[in-house]
Design brief:
single chain; about 900 residues; alpha/beta; Rossmann fold; seven-stranded mixed β-sheet; six-stranded parallel β-sheet; elongated
């Protein structure tokens, strides 16, 4: 037994460590990401003795394993991660798990205690083999019996997926015969290009049967679900896949957590399967025939109460699987011939399967998560590698980047966070001529921030964009998704918040040697991205996400459109009246407050924080209690006037606003379509400037949303959005007030909206970007809500927001089932057509039964009984429609008090 490495060097021999390194090099490994310790020192020496492998230090093992993953995904061959004993392997396990799920070729080389020392159970001793098997396809252990270490290393390096080679300390110093000069290892028999085995017998018959099944599928009911190598553009494979999809009329889908997709102009467009299982199951369930190409059958990431486990629900006969690395290309070529896919020419007869060129415009002003995604997509260069661990902040990037110049997109495949920064290291080393952009969530980035130091040390071209929302937004989303209450208690807040103190990413990056700046607007972000992409070496830039950009009301920018800011309305200091204290004393009068003429516009729900919205609702409850008590002294609007602009008439809106403002002591002036015509008789901006000099408040119920924007931009008095064709925030506040009264809570409700994806849905989604809930819109295809609004709201990560075309499935477990008219009142022809188009979407007794006994029914009124809902549902005990109608007035009172600075 060899107990000492200090043995005489025998001619024609080398250490076991050198033999292992030589074998790895001969198998094609060129990079070793290392964090070695005592038991790996002979490997460190061997890396100097065997030329051809670049040694790269990682300050933490998760950096090493994540870098090896990123390298393997882009290079298509393994890197080596050198780890110190069992604890080192344990530290790197999360990113080895991600590599295993990505099927990335990776060699983990792990030292162990000397064979004769293992029975002593030293402090760092662990069961390495068992630990390694949790993430490895194969685990090899080098013994002291004189094995061919080079052959062992070659075998480990050439295996598919993650392979672990464990080498005890004494084996690393054991002398073994060295190869003759110039002699390389032979490698495994049959390895190397051109040695791919022939496809198995029966392949041609399989392809003929598959082609027949694809031809037989109904239009729009054939899906091709891809993963692994099927998503990489190698030797024209993606073009062929796109041609097959176009020739067969199939939808191309890809895994949600894909390892790598080559995307952009000229390549096929894939539909990314949704993250949450209910939505994913619905997306896949629409297909009669499903073809899986190099992808395992998708399953739910988590087992939610009442949720699915398997996402593929078709019969076995309806699911076709093409797998096996060696045969995918052959099978696709044969399938292409069967379907005559060669006749498909991109952009001529491809049916839109291939992506055109369509970069998003550079957004301006307020920097939101969606704006960040659009900015990156607008500026990323051709050939970029985008390492995407943005999580909730990056949901809009997939669509924003669909028409960019060709690039490679990498994501968090195994779900173990902390992969982004290390993967960017590996990708940059695999493809030094390509620019790497890492879109990084701040919470995940903190798991492996040490990787920034490796980027600086190796002078890698990586631009890191940290989405510093200072919260674990995904956990808040999960609280809402699972309807866990309370979700805002001190423990929940503490365990999902990354503030107090705030993490200074600029200082952190600088400490690791990476130049860093902070971007606070879209323009600043665009400028810094351009600088970062133009320089050599790594650079980190930190955009502030919309979730933490909070300015006190009165100095904040109002979001008037989808992210378009205006000048903040000036707001002098004011005395604030606390309505709850005044309500309790029942003694509040206008003498207590002297509000200024300027105030806060109420245009969109997500212009306000959750706390501000809840405060408005509490104000509404308190003011309602005062009015119900009969107290006549509560006149906060005494001496004030409100102009009510109606280009779109409504009995309910007029009466609720006019009555509410009058009850609170003010006077309302009605301006109907015959009195005022915005933008026709005179410019809207002139009307705004005049009316705000006469009135302390202006309420507007309009057709065009842009008219509301123009009013707000030029009015010094608060503008209240009574409704536009785009949204209806006052109604949603009334709905939430009613829900609070009947259900006892505001958060973690499931709201199922059944009907047209109209302005009500836009308002619900905007509320869901502030208050945690599960919101599902069940609508016919072709009547979905505005996709930009959906992306904007989903990007906040506050709530689960989904679209369904199966209303009975959508309402299951709902706290509130909500509907609205299918067509505008008075539009006879449209109404008749909608009855046909919305067949199956009527809220009836059967649907409410499917929702469950807990469900309440809401309708914003007026209702067409017998059309969108039945008479029985309107009159049922679970209907809270008329409480909801009353609360329009009370909710609007709370909004107006807040807008005037009186809440």
């Amino acid at each position: 037994i060899l107990r000492s490495p200090n043995l005489p060097i025998m001619a024609g021999t080398e250490t076991g460590a050198t033999a292992v390194i030589r074998g790895a090099r001969d198998a094609g490994i060129e990079v070793c990401f290392a964090n070695p310790g005592t038991s790996e020192m002979h490997f460190v020496s061997a890396l100097d003795q065997v030329p051809g492998i670049r040694a790269v230090l990682g300050l933490h093992e998760t950096v090493c394993t994540g870098a090896a993953d990123g390298y393997g995904r882009m290079a298509g061959k393994p890197a080596m991660a050198l780890l110190h004993l069992g604890p080192g392997l344990a530290n790197g396990l999360a990113n080895l798990h991600n590599a295993r799920r990505a099927r990335t070729p990776t060699l983990a080389l792990v030292g162990d205690m000397a064979t004769w020392h293992q029975p002593a159970d030293a402090v760092l001793a662990m069961d390495i083999d068992s630990l390694a098997r949790t993430v490895s396809e194969e685990v090899y252990r080098a013994g002291a019996g004189g094995e061919d270490f080079r052959r062992l290393a070659e075998r480990a390096a050439e295996a598919r997926g993650v392979t672990t080679l464990v080498v005890p300390h004494d084996v690393s110093w054991t002398r073994v015969p060295a190869p003759e000069d110039g002699v390389k290892g032979e490698g495994r028999e049959g390895s190397g290009p051109g040695a791919a085995p022939a496809p198995p017998p029966g392949t041609e018959e399989f392809v003929r049967d598959l082609a027949a099944a694809m031809r037989a599928a109904s239009r729009g009911r054939l899906g091709i679900y891809c993963g692994g190598k099927a998503l990489i553009d190698a030797e024209g494979a993606l073009r062929l896949l796109g041609q097959i999809a176009a020739a067969s009329g199939a939808d191309l889908l890809c895994e949600n957590s894909f390892a790598r997709v080559d995307r952009g102009h000229g390549l096929p467009k894939f539909r990314r399967v949704p993250y949450f299982p209910q939505e994913a199951s619905a997306a896949l369930g629409k297909y009669e025939t499903l073809v899986l190409v190099d992808a395992r059958r998708p399953v739910a990431n988590f087992g939610y109460e009442g949720g699915p486990s398997q996402l593929v629900t078709q019969s076995e006969e309806a699911v076709w699987e093409i797998d096996g690395d060696a045969h995918i290309g052959t099978v696709l070529k044969l399938l292409g011939m069967e379907l005559q896919a060669g006749r498909i020419v991109p952009f001529k007869n491809c049916g839109g399967v291939f992506a055109g060129t369509s970069r998003p415009l550079l957004p301006t002003g307020r920097l939101t998560a969606a704006a960040m995604c659009a900015t990156i997509a607008a500026l990323q260069p051709e050939g970029a590698i985008v390492v995407d661990e943005a999580l909730t902040s990056g949901t809009a990037y997939w669509e924003a980047s669909s028409g960019c110049p060709q690039f490679s997109h990498l994501t968090l495949t195994g779900g173990a966070i902390g992969a982004g920064i290390p993967m960017a290291v590996g990708a940059a080393m695999a493809c030094p001529a390509r620019r790497v952009i890492n879109i990084q969530a701040d919470g995940s980035g903190l798991y492996s921030a040490q990787g920034l130091w490796t980027q600086a040390r190796e002078k890698l071209n990586v631009l890191t964009i940290v989405c510093a929302n200072r919260t674990y937004a995904i956990l808040k989303l999960e609280l809402a998704k699972q309807r866990i209450a309370p979700s805002n208690g001190p423990a929940a807040r503490s365990l999902t918040d990354l503030g107090h103190p705030n993490i200074d990413w600029v200082a952190l990056a600088a400490g690791y040697g990476v130049p860093a700046v902070q971007a606070g607007s879209c323009e600043e972000l665009a400028r810094q991205i351009e600088v970062g992409l133009a320089r050599d070496g790594p650079m980190a830039t930190r955009p502030m996400s919309m979730l933490v950009t909070y300015t006190p009301v009165g100095a904040r920018s109002q979001r008037l459109g989808l992210g378009t800011p205006i000048r903040p309305t000036a707001s002098p200091s004011r005395r604030t009246a606390h309505i709850r204290a005044r309500a309790a004393a029942k003694s509040w009068s206008s003498k207590d407050v002297s509000p200024p003429s300027s105030g806060t516009h109420f245009l969109h729900l997500d212009d306000f924080s959750k706390e501000e919205l809840v405060h408005m609702l509490q104000t509404a409850k308190d003011a309602k209690a005062i009015l119900k008590s009969g107290d006549q002294s509560f006149k906060p609007f005494k001496g004030k006037t409100m102009a009510m602009i109606f280009t779109k008439p409504s009995m309910r809106t007029r009466v609720s606003f006019e009555t509410g403002f009058t009850k609170l002591g003010g006077n309302a002036v009605y301006l109907g379509p015959d009195t005022i015509q915005l933008g026709k008789r005179e410019p809207t901006r002139d009307i705004a400037r005049v009316l705000c000099r006469y009135n302390e408040m202006i309420m507007a119920r309009l057709f065009g949303h842009q008219d509301l924007i123009d009013l707000a931009q030029y009015s010094d008095s608060p503008i209240i959005n009574g409704l536009t064709d785009y949204n209806h925030p006052c109604q949603i506040m009334a709905d939430m007030l009613t829900a609070w009264e009947h259900l006892g809570r505001l958060e973690n409700l499931k709201i199922a909206y059944v009907g047209d994806g109209n302005n009500m849905v836009h308002s619900w989604m905007r509320l869901a970007s502030r208050i945690p809930m599960e919101f599902v819109c069940a609508c016919p295809e072709g009547f979905t809500p505005d996709p930009a609004t959906r992306e904007l709201c989903q990007a906040t990560g506050v709530s689960s927001i989904s679209i369904s075309h199966e209303p009975f499935e959508a309402v299951k477990g709902a706290d509130i089932v909500y509907t609205d008219v299918w067509a505008s009142m008075g539009q006879k022809e449209e109404a008749e057509e909608r009855k046909r188009q919305f067949k199956g979407f009527q809220v009836n007794e059967e649907m409410m039964k499917a929702a469950g006994p807990q469900a309440k029914f809401m309708h914003c009124l007026p209702a067409e009984r017998g059309v969108e809902c039945t008479d029985g549902v309107m009159e049922a005990e679970y209907s809270i429609v008329f409480d909801e109608a009353e609360n329009r007035m009370h909710a609007q009172n709370g909004i107006m008090l807040h807008a005037m600075g009186l809440s």
